[in-house]
């Protein structure tokens, strides 16, 4: 046993290791299943590929990093945008494969960044992704989602407010595990109240009673492979340009998480096994999940909280949680239970989550002490936010907030029409401006607090 914690959980015995594995699964559970509930993806597939992705990550990082990979909140807006975009094509009945291929490409960007980090080092690569670019992009991700949260809240405000109150109380005044899982408790409490007062959808309740206890976690029509038959080329290109830029935010989140886990455990995982290995593991896990219709993965801050709480840092315990998630994924009955969740419950917790995403962007800028007395920084932030939000909500570019249709900048190459989301345009312009304008003085690793400031979890 070290001063900071237990590195080898086998000293605790297998019963306690299993209990700690359940605790890690419990910590990630609420957030991980909430993403498919918000996006319409499969809960079962989400759990399956969270477990498999975590095991893949551990394999690629030589089993040294005690990280759990759950579904990412950062991509929620992208799924909504692709869903709305696919609705404009008469020949597309299912948006999930199209969103999936976009997320696969986002995972490929992780792999590319991994190679660059291996070749040139972290500091050299991160100069192209400073907080003046990533901060405003993250702010815009949250702001573009806020109206959908309100639309769900208005279905039953008291249920939504109950979820909000539970999350806030647990997050501010909770102790131990209560403080680590406020979202899960908010969902369970609000859901239970809705059930008691008869606010659940009768059709979904009937589907719950008919659902099988054991089944296959994913459907082939949700996989990217289904596009090989008759995929729409324009929709595929548009989905890629919509989803891939979000990796700009999540890659920075990953780096912050690795710094946070290193600080918690007392070992420098950025150096050994190396940031290139952790990025590779996260990217390949994300692409694998997306291929089969599951959401993008990301390293989970909730499980870092469990590490700090228990002082047991052995990655074996996290791998036990991954196996448990895989086992739960084979129960359609559980997936149906999640599907019964009232829209107001989703609205309440997502209102906090979406606002938190924007707040994380502000935190990223503040804690990295971005100097807004410099005109270059003001211009970069202004254009990122102006283009992202302007295009997203522009009626002239096809936006209809009542129908949840987002604006997009469209152009045609040959017979294929490609639509660029506001976030894609804003992120691309921000990266280019940061590269060409003089005065880029950002150095990764100089401010440890700033390096850890990107974390989309409540």
Describe the structure in brief.
The chain contains 22 helices and four strands. It is mostly helical and about 450 residues long. The protein has a two-stranded antiparallel ribbon. A two-stranded antiparallel sheet has the order 3-4.
Enumerate the spans where pLDDT stays under 50 for 5 or more consecutive residues: none
Share of helix among residues? 55-70%
User: What is the H/E string?
Assistant: HHEHHHHHHHHHHHHHEHHHHHEEHH
What form results from the Cα inertia axes?
globular
Q: Quickly count the helices.
A: 22
Strand content: under 5%
Describe this structure in words.
- The protein has about 450 residues and is mainly alpha-helical.
- It has 22 helices and four strands.
- It has helices at about 15-40, 45-60, 75-85, 95-120, 120-125, 130-145, 145-155, 155-175, 175-180, 180-195, 200-210, 225-230, 235-245, 245-265, 270-290, 300-310, 315-330, 330-340, 345-365, 375-395, 420-435, 450, and strands spanning about 70, 295-300, 410-415, 415-420.
- A two-stranded antiparallel sheet has the order 1-2.
- The longest helix is centred in the N-terminal third of the chain and has 26 residues, at about 15-40.
């Amino acid at each position: 046993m070290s001063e900071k914690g237990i590195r080898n959980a086998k000293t605790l015995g297998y019963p306690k290791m299993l209990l700690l594995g359940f605790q890690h699964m419990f910590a990630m559970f609420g957030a991980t299943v909430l993403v498919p509930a918000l996006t319409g993806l499969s809960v079962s597939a989400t759990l399956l590929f969270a477990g498999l992705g975590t095991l893949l990550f551990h394999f690629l990082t030589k089993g040294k990093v005690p990280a759990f990979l759950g579904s990412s909140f950062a991509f929620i807006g992208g799924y909504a945008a692709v869903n709305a975009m696919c609705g404009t094509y008469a020949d597309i009945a299912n948006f999930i494969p199209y969103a999936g291929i976009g997320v696969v490409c986002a995972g490929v960007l992780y792999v590319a960044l991994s190679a660059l980090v291996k070749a040139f080092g972290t500091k050299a690569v991160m100069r192209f992704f400073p907080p003046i670019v990533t901060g405003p992009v993250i702010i815009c991700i949250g702001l573009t989602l806020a109206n959908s949260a309100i639309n769900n809240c208005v279905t039953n405000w008291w249920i939504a407010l109950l979820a909000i109150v539970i999350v806030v109380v647990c997050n501010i005044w909770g102790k131990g595990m209560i403080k680590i899982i406020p979202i899960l408790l908010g969902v369970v409490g609000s859901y239970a109240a809705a059930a008691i007062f008869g606010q659940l959808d009768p059709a979904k309740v009937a589907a719950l009673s008919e659902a099988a206890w054991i089944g296959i976690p994913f459907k082939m029509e949700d996989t990217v492979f289904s596009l090989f038959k008759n995929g729409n080329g324009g929709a595929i290109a548009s989905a890629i340009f919509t989803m891939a830029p979000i990796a700009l935010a999540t890659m920075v989140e990953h780096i912050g998480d690795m710094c946070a886990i290193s600080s918690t455990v007392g070992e420098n995982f950025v150096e050994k096994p190396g940031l290139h290995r952790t990025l590779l593991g996260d990217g390949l896990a994300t692409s694998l999940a997306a291929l089969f219709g599951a959401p993008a993965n990301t390293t989970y801050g909730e499980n870092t909280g469990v590490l700090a709480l228990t002082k047991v840092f052995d990655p074996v315990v996290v791998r036990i949680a991954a196996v448990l998630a895989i086992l739960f994924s084979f129960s359609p009955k559980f997936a149906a239970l999640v599907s019964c969740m009232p829209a107001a419950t989703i609205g309440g917790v997502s209102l906090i989550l979406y606002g938190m995403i924007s707040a994380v962007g502000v935190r990223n800028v503040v804690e990295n002490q971005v100097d807004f007395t410099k005109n270059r920084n003001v211009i970069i932030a202004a254009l990122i936010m102006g283009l992202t939000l302007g295009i997203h909500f522009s009626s002239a570019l096809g936006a209809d907030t009542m129908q949840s249709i987002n604006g997009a900048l469209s152009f045609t190459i040959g017979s294929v029409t490609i639509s660029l989301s506001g976030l894609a345009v804003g992120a691309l312009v921000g990266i280019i401006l940061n590269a060409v304008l003089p005065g880029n003085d950002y150095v990764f690793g100089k401010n440890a607090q700033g390096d850890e400031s990107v974390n989309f979890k409540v």
